[in-house]
Amino acid sequence: MIKISSLSNKKIKEIEQLKKSGVRKERGLIVVDGFREILLAYQSGWEIVELFYCPELAKKGDINKFKLAEQKIVEVSGGVFNKICYKEKPDGFLATIKGREFSLADIKLSRQPLIIILEKVEKPGNIGAILRTAYAAGADALIINDNQTDIYNPNIIRASEGFIFLKPLVSASLEETIIWLKNNKIKSVAAATSATKNYTKINLRDGVAIVLGSEDSGLSKKWLESANELIKIKMEKGIDSLNVSVSAAIIVYEALRQRENNDKSL
Question: Which domain covers residue 91, as residue numbers?
Answer without folding.
Answer: 2-98
